[in-house]
Design goal:
alpha/beta; six-stranded parallel beta sheet; two-stranded parallel ribbon; 41% helix
């Protein structure tokens, strides 16, 4: 057994895919969420990340040595109640950090997001030098913990690892993110149905398949710290030659069946 991992938000858009992949890689996984588990075939416990006492109990009971924190309110849903979004996303992750310090858990994975950028950023080639003025509370909360993560890593108090994800494409239902309509488009295309999109025809959106997100994250977590360096983020899918460009080109022509044949065959290969 490689590691004993606790996953928060395990029933969300990313969690279930990480659970399955980590178990298949010979890790013990304790899945946690505030929802009822009807899909995961592994040890599962109720855990609200605002409940620090409960978290401490679970970590000790299951002898956890790594945490993947996916418990969060996403961008579009978060705008309906910004203060609750801040509490869940920031206070919740603060509790996770406190629990790790208390229980000597060094390594944590926490997904950040391209939501840290704003309209003043160069979105054709966004680097870490770009202005980061997020316009959603979700983006604000992610940026706040990006800065906090740097502090904890610099002080060698914790080893927090992260990737700035774009929109994620998977077979899970949309969870309240601003790119959920992309997933809706793909579902409609798969069913050969028309889809009315409110975006301009020349809009490009960065998307990533969930398998690639999981693979990159686990490889990052398995890597020795001295072999990790900070990489600039390139939003490749916003360039005219990206997959999204092809999808949107076909959508403009209303050739949904062609999107299905040429793109969805790979995107939905595991649906």
């Amino acid at each position: 057994m490689k590691n004993r991992i606790l996953i928060t938000g395990a029933l969300g858009q990313l969690g279930e895919f990480f659970v399955k992949s980590l178990i298949s890689n010979n890790n013990y996984v304790l899945a946690t969420d505030i929802k009822e588990n009807k899909i995961l075939d592994c040890d599962f416990e109720y855990f609200d990340i605002l409940d620090e006492k409960r978290g401490d109990f679970l970590i000790k009971k299951y002898k956890i040595n790594q945490i993947y924190n996916f418990a969060a309110i996403l961008s579009a849903k978060g705008e309906q109640n910004p203060l609750s979004t801040w509490e869940i996303n920031n206070t919740g992750f603060t509790n996770i950090a406190k629990l790790c310090l208390k229980n000597n858990i060094k390594r944590i994975f926490w997904p950040s997001s391209i939501a840290v950028f704003g309209r003043n950023s160069n979105l054709n080639l966004a680097t870490n030098d770009e202005p980061m003025l997020p316009e959603t509370m979700y983006g604000v909360s992610k940026l706040a913990w990006e800065k906090s993560m740097f502090y904890f890593n610099y002080k060698k108090l914790l080893d927090i690892r992260s990737i700035r994800f774009p929109g994620i494409v998977s077979n899970s239902k949309p969870g309240g993110g601003t790119t959920d309509y992309i997933v809706d488009m793909l579902y409609y295309a798969k069913q050969k149905k028309d889809y009315t999109c409110f975006l301009k025809q020349d809009t490009f959106l960065p998307m990533l398949h969930v398998d690639d997100a999981v693979d990159a994250s686990i490889k990052l977590m398995d890597c020795e710290l001295n072999k990790i360096s900070l990489n600039q983020l390139v939003l490749e899918s916003q360039t005219p030659g990206g997959t999204n460009a092809y999808v949107l080109k076909q959508l403009k022509k209303k050739k949904f069946y062609k999107v299905q044949q040429k793109v969805l065959n790979s995107i939905f290969k595991k649906f």
